[in-house]
Amino acid sequence: MNNALEKLSKYLKLESDRRYDNRAVLGGLQRMLEPWQEEARKEQLPESLIDLVTSRLRDYGRLSPSSRYEALRGLWTRLRENYPDLPSDLLRAPSTDPEPAVPPQSSPATAEPPPGDAAILEPEAEPRAPRAAVKAPPVELSAPLTEIQGIGPKSAKTLAKLGLQTLGDLLWHLPRRYDDYTQLETINRLWYGQEVTVIGTIEAIQVREVRNGRMKLTEATVSDGTGSLKITWFNQPWIARRLKPGRAVVLSGKVDQYLGHLTMNNPEWEPLERRQLHTNRIVPVYPLTAGVSGKWLRRVMHSVVARTAPHLPDPLPDSIRRSAELVPLSLAIQQIHFPDSWERLREAQHRLAFDEMLMLQLGVMRQKREWEALQTEPLPVEDAWITSFKERLPFALTGAQEKALRDIRADMSSPRPMNRLLQGDVGSGKTVVAAAAAGMAITNGAQAAFMAPTSILAEQHLQTLRGLLPSILEIPVESIQLLIGATPEAEKARIREGLDSGDIKVVVGTHALIEDPVTFHRLGLAVIDEQHRFGVHQRAALRAKGTNPNLLVMTATPIPRSLALTVYGDLDLTLLDEMPPGRKPVETQALHPRERLRAYSFITSQLEQGRQAFIIFPLVEESDKLDARAAVDEHRELQETIFSRFRVGLLHGRMKPEEKEQVMRQFRAGEIDVLVSTSVVEVGVDVPNATVMLVEGANRFGLAQLHQFRGRVGRGQAQSYCLLIPDTEDATDNARLQAMQSTNDGFQLAEMDLSQRGPGDFLGTRQSGFVQLRMAQLTDLQLIEKARREARRLFDQDPELHMPEHRLLAEELERLWTIEKGEIS
Hints:
Layout: H1 3-17, H2 33-42, H3 47-58, H4 65-82, H5 153-160, H6 167-171, E1 177-180, E2 195-210, E3 215-223, E4 228-234, H7 239-242, E5 248-258, E6 261-265, E7 268-271, E8 282-285, H8 294-308, H9 318-324, H10 329-337, H11 342-372, H12 383-392, H13 399-412, E9 419-424, H14 430-443, E10 447-451, H15 455-473, E11 480-483, H16 489-501, E12 506-509, E13 523-528, H17 536-543, E14 550-555, H18 561-565, E15 572-576, E16 587-590, H19 596-608, E17 612-616, H20 631-640, E18 648-651, H21 657-668, E19 674-677, E20 690-696, H22 703-710, E21 721-725, H23 735-742, H24 746-757, H25 760-763, H26 781-797, H27 807-816
Parallel strand pairs: 4-6, 9-14, 9-15, 10-12, 10-13, 11-12, 13-14, 16-21, 17-19, 17-20, 18-19, 20-21
Antiparallel strand pairs: 1-8, 2-3, 2-5, 3-4, 5-6, 5-7
């Protein structure tokens, strides 16, 4: 028989057995038309017959049961004229079967026991379809879960483990994946491995104990007229009380095999007389916790979505929905939880992702607008100053540095404070550009402050600035000072006094810069290095030391274009995408674990030439949970055996700050030959004499981290090397390790890292005020561009969102952005 006709006959037979109640298919018989038409055309059914089926079933739901029978009988007669093999006794008149094919249960049971209270939904109530019209007034999304009928304190406490406190939390508790149980098959057509739905009748069911009573098996035999299937549920004896012989049931799951017979283990199931939530559809799978089962939570979600989603106000004005081709929010929420089709699900996902990206873009645009509204004192310099500065440098600037200088000069000449991100790979020369910006401020009688995340990095900046600015600007070396936590109190007092009087022109420091009572005479420039290491409030505290000072933030982490358009969209961006001439690229090689001794031998040869090396481990100490090499244990072994002739140092995050700084000073001074470390060494360490970076457990690190590790070497004139050793032999082919071998381009690696691991490493605490993205992907450039276009159009029209049609949008923006105004960078 033609597959499309066989499926149609199955639907019609079930409709006949159900006495034409239009519930053989979820949502009504007409709902099967679209997928059926597609299959019928694939099976090359004549278009005239497809049109006939469509015309008879399109308005089927509006007919009375007797009229439905007549419509189907006429349709079936026409089909049998073309296909005589079709059964003649498929349909029965309603009058010939006075009782329902499936007797109603006097007390339909819940799908399974709830975790705490008697029931979340009334057990007798049939779950409504998510799209059903609900006339009850909407519930406040801030209402506690206990206000939902059936959720008591115990259930609410259990749901709180998932972070669900309010009705709104529940509505936005989105599925983590979906199971496709839309493929309805007869038992005789099943095959091993199928994800499928079967409708049949319970022939027999029993519970038996195995493993000396430690496990109970509920075993059932289900038949549908074409064959029978054995079903097994593990440790769910209560199912036998729900499913008695003779009861029709819908089963969805994976077809398994045992002793040559097809079976189903632990399938989802529902009585046929109920509208299906767990079977015969695209089934949502939610994040769970102990005490909350998927089936129970799905019924809760269905009830809440059905009652709440139709009443949700839509914050997007009609103009944006039309322009961006988006479905209404109420429909998106319904379909994201209980999709009618994969196409509807994609539409819902796109709508919710667009909303998040639009809010992110609007918030960033608002921040940039607020920054641009600020006023500051211009700090201009003449062309002759720029020429003199460049001529007095001991090296020539790259083209990228020249452009950065032009950008910064234009910014600082403006009455609007600079808000610029200087982004450059390790060794691209960011500090020199920042030094030029400091020179512009000093020339105008203002001061500059450099804030770095570690004392080591702050000391490096101090050395660079003292090596450049005094000779170029003809200022005393003492006018450039270091302020860190370890600075003696008497020295701190002297520095604070110099900053307050204006005698100190440049201060370099750590968090100590933002601690009171540090005050500036006239702060004109704030430079923040490795800015993702600082929180929003810390950056704002440094800016607050002056009157809207110019801000230059720097990062050595290449930022993918999608992030530059979104999370960093409020900053003007300058790229240092050229390396200084003569800088040799680091040679990178991924080794097998069995080649470790070869790597040690190579390091020894470098040490014998007077060079130094890093060895990075993923753990501080050995772990029972992770099979990875640890720094503390390996340090001891390496010092006593492999590198016994050399000095091996140890650095890790559990050491006290002063201990870490002491080790780094020794390494930089050449008093340590090999530095064994964890990822704490990732940022900012500049040791030109180090030529080898060996990373153990390299497959455990992201590309951004591996690239930062590699950037710790290759900072001198000698050729440098990066050796990557994974945990296991087969991990040597890890895609990240292969990418590290193939390119030194940090931007290319950053794009790969973003797509593989998400944006976490790039964001740091930058936008801590924005609610976490649920649907939007920061790798989706097409969505970002679309949201950016709509946000720009909206912002140009109504930047304050004061127009009546934008009121809900403004409220949503305030809800999602908890960041204080002015805290931009």
